[in-house]
Amino acid sequence: MIQMIGVFCQYFDLLRDIMANLAYLRIFSAFAFIILMGCKEVTPKKGETIKPKQQVVVKDTVVPSMLKEKVTPLKLLADTTFVRLADYSDDFMYDLRYATTNNFLKSKVYDCPECYTRVKTAKALLQANNELMAKGFKIKFYDCYRPNSVQYKMWAIVPNPQYVANPVKGSIHNKGGAVDITLATLDGKELDMGTDFDFFGKRAYHDNYDLPKEILDNRKLLKETMEAHGFWSIRTEWWHYNLSAGTNDKVANFKWDCKN
Q: Residue 141: which of 105, 89, 106 has the closest Cα?
């Protein structure tokens, strides 16, 4: 009888271990099922829509316009920060055409005229302008940073990559590293560059030398000065300059505030 009781106890202990393991297995299976369901792609039922997951948007760093005495020095800002150029110098001139209808689009696509660039672009422009002012000239701007949303507006009006960069890829204007400029004397008289801004034709080409010497000299002065400060030009547009260091920056879409 004692032997039978001992055998029964052994089987009882074995059965208890098996039941315990089964309990652990059920708990593990339930946990695994919960994880798998959480990872499973949700398929909408007929007539049902699923809202996209919220994305984290990284905003561009922009220094707001402020009084000159309160402006943060450029050397204290990251090179990719956007700044209003007029806050850092009174020595530039502006004729920001896309804030008017006086452009090849025949449409106003900016709410108000402002010239923003990234800090590194602003530094290079200030250096270039200082060199030009020593020679009796200064830079006049037609366009600076351009929000990507404006690029879409321009593309809707003129969907031709020969004249307007495809907004899906964006342009260096959208990155804050491109400017459209000309030269003026210190008293504000524009130099003759042979064509108006945004003239699309051979007469605006850098390699068109069939022009009066005065025009060629003016273009040469602008081109050589800009290249000496890190910019490169587009063959077909004497007014357009890209900062080499700004080519790989991301496309931006912030819009400046219009005070009036």
A: 89
